[in-house]
Amino acid sequence: MRGTKMIKVLHTADIHLDVPFKIASVAKAQTRRSELRGALSSLFTYARLEHFDLILIAGDMFDREFATPDTVALVLREMAACSDCRIVISPGNHDPYTPGSVWAKSKFPDNIYIFRSPTLERISFDDIGVDVYGYAFTGPYMDACPFSEPPELDPSRINILCGHGCIGGSSRHCPITADDISHSGFDYIALGHIHNSDGIKRVGRTWYGYPGALEGHDFSEPGFGGAVVATMRKDGGVFDCDARGRRFSRRRFETLTVDASAVRTDTDLLALIDGKIAAHGYGEETQLRLVLTGFLSSDVALSESAVLDHISPSLFYAELVMNTEPLPEGDGLDLDPTVRGAFYASLRPELESDDPELRRTASDALRYGLSALRGDNIL
């Protein structure tokens, strides 16, 4: 196939079907499981309606190499409904290709192409002028990058790599270096493994990136999840890519830190929290971790359960982390225009640090400093 080539590609990864959602309510955990399956169905429905040429699944479609029968049935049904789309799968460290895995034991539709080897393989689609290279985890670890020795590519075709791996640092999950990417010669590298997407980037002639998880699994994966939608063109050996993220998730995980130092009453505290939640637009789609910091007045008597009871009805799920310290004195240091307020402001970054030891040291420094400013003998 010669001349200009243009294809529509949907790049996804890290779906983790059958993952056990670890939230307090069994009923809500079951809801999350159903919503993850719903996100998968939405992805395939979108691919079918928008007539994508290619779906790339870069590992960890399943949370384990085995899956429940109803989950396997769902996947086979959704893939079969996308019969006009080529679907390429690179098994990851959670769902490696093994003799007993879903990949080996299930009968997939004819439009499904699964890599089976830890060494680089190629699947050619001559009708659209595309070669897709890839590999499979065949166990939980892969200590070397399969494309550190680049293959010989046909520059007239769109050359794509689909694989699971970790860019940068030392990893036993297919460590990938910047040089591996820049020297690969691929037009596009569709990666999986990292659950937080920071967009599709370009180094040299190669576009690459992670789509992130389809649905976040915990608070380390903030924001909405989704996939990458890309239009790829190649003309005269010159490749171009228009790639953007598209949301498919029902929920999002978020962490909200609120400084309670200015609060003097229970009512003020709840009003402050409500205002911060509203300002961020958090609602029933949000799983929220609320972190209270700063010096809390002894006049605030609300229990943690009372705070949670207040905010939970407007959210899907909420939890509270108390990182506050008792206010050394009753008056508001953040509003104090004297040297006492300035002293408090200078310590505030340490007082609100995520490091408990640093917060404790800063709290002690504040107490001693305020005592010294009062003229107390602190020796």
Layout of strands and helices, then pairs:
Layout: E1 5-12, H1 26-49, E2 54-57, H2 69-81, E3 86-89, H3 102-105, E4 112-114, E5 121-125, E6 130-134, E7 158-164, E8 166-167, E9 175-176, H4 178-182, E10 188-192, E11 200-203, E12 206-209, E13 223-235, E14 238-259, H5 266-280, E15 286-296, H6 304-311, E16 317-326, H7 339-351, H8 356-374
Helix pairs in contact: 1-2, 7-8
Question: In words, what does this structure look like?
Answer:
The chain starts with a strand and ends in a 5-residue tail after the last helix. It contains eight helices and 16 strands. α1 (26-49) runs parallel beside α2 (69-81). β13 and β14 (238-259) form a beta hairpin. It is elongated, with a radius of gyration of 26 Å. The protein folds into two domains: 5-249, Purple Acid Phosphatase, chain A, domain 2; 251-374, no CATH class. With 379 residues, it is of the alpha/beta class.
What are the key terms here?
single chain, 379 residues, alpha/beta, Purple Acid Phosphatase, chain A, domain 2, 2 domains, eight-stranded mixed beta sheet, six-stranded mixed beta sheet, 8 helices, 16 strands, 29% strand, elongated
End-to-end span in angstroms?
Answer: 85 Å
- What is the global morphology? elongated
Low-confidence stretches: none
Strand residue percentage: 25-35%
CATH superfamily of the largest domain: Metallo-dependent phosphatases
The largest sheet, given as strand count, sense and whether it forms a barrel, is: 8 strands, mixed
Strand order of the largest sheet: 4-3-2-1-13-14-15-16
